[in-house]
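@channel anyone free to eyeball this complex?
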Amino acid sequence: MGKRITSHDVARRAGVSRSAVSLVLNGRAEGAISAQNQEAVLRAVNELGYRPNTVARSLRNASTHTIGVVTDSILSTGFGGDMVNEATRAAAARGYLLLVVDCDRNPVREQEAVQVLKSRQCDGLMLAAEHLREWQPPPGFADEKCLLLDAVDPSGQVPGVVSDEVGGARSATELLLRAGHREIAYLTGESHYLAAGMRVQGHTKALAAAGLGPQLVECGWDISDGLRVGLRLLDSPDRPTAVLCANDRVAAGVFLAAARLGLSIPDELSVVGYDNDRNVAPHLGLTTISLPHRAMGARAIEVLLDVMAGRAVESTRLLVDSPVVERASVAPPSR
Amino acid sequence: MGKRITSHDVARRAGVSRSAVSLVLNGRAEGAISAQNQEAVLRAVNELGYRPNTVARSLRNASTHTIGVVTDSILSTGFGGDMVNEATRAAAARGYLLLVVDCDRNPVREQEAVQVLKSRQCDGLMLAAEHLREWQPPPGFADEKCLLLDAVDPSGQVPGVVSDEVGGARSATELLLRAGHREIAYLTGESHYLAAGMRVQGHTKALAAAGLGPQLVECGWDISDGLRVGLRLLDSPDRPTAVLCANDRVAAGVFLAAARLGLSIPDELSVVGYDNDRNVAPHLGLTTISLPHRAMGARAIEVLLDVMAGRAVESTRLLVDSPVVERASVAPPSR
DNA sequence: TTGAAAGCGCTAACAT
DNA sequence: ATGTTAGCGCTTTCAA
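replying in thread with the prediction:
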């Protein structure tokens, strides 16, 4: 631990008491400390480079102004980092610091992390998932002021901030329908993923509204999956005119498949991704559905601070919109 | 802050004094507390679910067992997450918690973050970069026990743990030479990136040892760059037989270009990437140079704890090896 | 072998 | 309007 400048030093230098220093620094000085002394305190603070010892303040106030965040694999995969990042900002803007512990999907480490964060006296606790999933909170978690982020509690006890997957897939589909497409294939992620199922729902619903049925192809989540399935699906004269992809990486695979088959995008094939993956979508000119990670992170802090303040949450699933990001991979069908 | 079980509660329940509880819990009981009472304390701890209040302990011990980590954009880009993740583990194994603040490359936020972490009384401070760069530590940083991770201090004051970029590019080149290639193009990242320059060095050195000169093409770091440059470079009969890429995303772009041009990899073209990007390399069967993020993270904690213990660091640049990861994108040249 | 007491740096109730 | 004091929960002398 660094320096040794305490409020006592400041008080001495300013010629006032330690309580005076405390009052000034906590904005409770008005009507209690003379303007002259306030001035003196502030000057001493600057001259000495004094910063209050947060640890002592935490002990005294029974509040650390920290929020403990346990993540499953956000750090290791890099997916969802924006969410945590924006949460960090939103928290900082309110004087809170996030204590983030990534547990790499290891339940034992998750349990330990919750214990560690509790013993560090976090004012609130959060479980943040890389992508939408069910997440049974570890023991002791639900005893605290807490919230899930991009996850739902199967027991319904802890509320969660989640993205609107159904709505996102619906928007994507409507976009293709508006462009004139009638033969749309959907390369879905594995069906045991929560998000995959919800997206299929939204997709199917939008098609039904246009009097169409879905063409679903279970695929996967990676470039290689998009390539493999794309090659099979597109190498035929009655291929679909548009493909909706499980995510942007799959879309990249479809781009690769189209290149091999000599199909040009978007003239002969429209492609829509999902996630708005910064490493993929902009570089491919890919139209995609944005996962609203930043908004979710900000929302989560807002809600959790409400919970910490004792206010009730209106619902157990707090939906955040997933807007379409239009780029150049969609055009009217050529036939 | 949660429940209110203190060491006092434990002491009462065990029928001993608070100091006895402290001694037992800190392993200093032997020869001081009777076996019977130790037993009683442990039992009471379990029954009550007591966990020591870390804040109080920190205040008393003048040590928080935390390490403050300021990152430039690891969280937002997801690149280098493994580094932080492994650092978290290594720290946890020694009873330390990482306080990670991502500042999104914003210098003002970086300054603030350092101040916040200092006032939180972190025992050590770290600056961790998304990828190798020069990083002038913010004011106040170098006053603490500190270290850079994947970054170098231009003033040479603060030591840094960095990957061996020169060695990595040399290994990659040697691999292609061993496979029989003589016409190797290197799609470099922008030259103002520190890593790009060092990789060119390693590449050139390895070629020189084989009596060859480099074919350097300044390119960029993204899929679109690889595609663009790849189309130009490979659409000619005297194209290179092998391409070494600035990173794996560029390599993905080259794959795309090769697909368009009808070139099969690795039969007609060998490709080597850099980074071992988990979202790209394995799915493309791409041979690549691994950025040793995990090893770097672990090493950083090790070194920083040494610094915190007052031990001197042997060098200002602590190199970590960058090993080759062989997959299926390299074969002997076809001509 | 154990308990009483001081004190880490801060804030807030209470005197002055 | 300002200073004194108690105490947050813990560890660590120091007496008993």
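from a first look: Residues 16-20, 31-34, 37, 56, 58-62 of chain A lie near DNA strand D (CB under 10 Å from a C1').
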